[in-house]
Amino acid sequence: MGPAANDAVRCAIDTVEVARIERLLRETPPEALTDFFAAGELADAGEGPGRAASLAARFAAKEACLKLFPRETGLARIVPADFTIGRDGFGAPVVEPSANARAAMDRHRVRDVSISLTHTAGTASAVALALPRGTQVPWIGRALWRFAPVRREVIVENLRRVFGAHLPEAEIGRLAQAHYAHLAKLCAEFLRYRWLSAERRGALVRVEGVEHFAKAWEAQRGILVLTGHFGNFEVATLAGLTQFPEVRGRIHFVRRPIKPRWLDALVNRRMRAAGFGTIGKRGSLDEVLALLARGDAIVVPFDQHAQVPDGIEVEFFGHPAGTFKSLAIIAIATGAPVVPAAAWRESDGTHVLRFEEPLPAIECADPDDEIRRNTRAYNAALERLVLRHPEQWWWVHRRWKPMRKRVRRPAPGP
Hints:
The protein has 414 residues and is α/β, with parallel strands linked by helices. Helices cover 41% and strands 21% of the residues. The strands form 4 sheets. It has a 7-stranded mixed β-sheet with strand order 6-14-13-7-10-8-9, with helices on both faces. A 3-stranded antiparallel β-sheet has the order 1-5-4. The longest helix has 25 residues, at 169-193.
């Protein structure tokens, strides 16, 4: 099955009076204009008589982009400043989305937004076109969907929970089939990986955002790497990080044992052979704190369901989900930066490991609220990473299971 459009191409238009922008320029201090326009937009508009008309066209484009995503706009998840109007190498206008805007586009499976601008002496108008992202489904994905639909109900239910309000059922089915193809590739890569030379393994992986990890590493406060079950975790992470011998023995993975035991032992052996430590999820707090104090990095898979007392109920993709609170507690206590990271497989079979900018810490007077708000920020970061390549996330996991209520046992009698 080739790529298929998830919906008809959507179009939006907006018109802005030039006089409105002229008034904004007169009444707004120059430093406050960045609330409406990016520095590049202000510079590109120049200082001449056409400045107001140029900015009016850009503002109309921002408003047209917002109209493509009415739900996110109505909930104030995206605002005009989330869309910067730049120029390509030929001078044509292009949309440069912020992280929030990119997440909205990814959730609607929008590959890009194309725009056209025009203005007269009195008005400026813009047309925005949402270009859909088709889902490529290899034959193995269709075959597994039909003949070996392991946990198909769970996968489809999870996809509907995230995409049901934004995508037609046919596109959700294609995403599920693409996920089965991803699982098949995972199994094949796992068997093949052990026979590859170190040079071949390194050639398979490209590491992006190294500057974010390096800056946090140089601070020597330790690093908490926030990640999940993205792409091929073993190939991208282990082979990618071995390109940096200076971190050998200084990166440790928090792992929950997997079944069967022989597979868990094999994964642990491979990780230790690559120079990485492993830490159990339970009873490891003292070890984690000691490693952070030494300046090491702790990799924390954060996308699994957590029950009480380890977890708290925090929104994930708009639905309450039991989420581990330990990451927020450790980050608050130690001041270690939290660096999101994800991996994915490219269409040519190579892999990418990407580090994002550290998440800003949220401080609150109430400790419980501080833990909850930071945990929600971690989930929001994971959402953006999942949406980037949704077919390569672990949809077979029951992420939104109900949380059991904590039962308080009565104190023993005299």
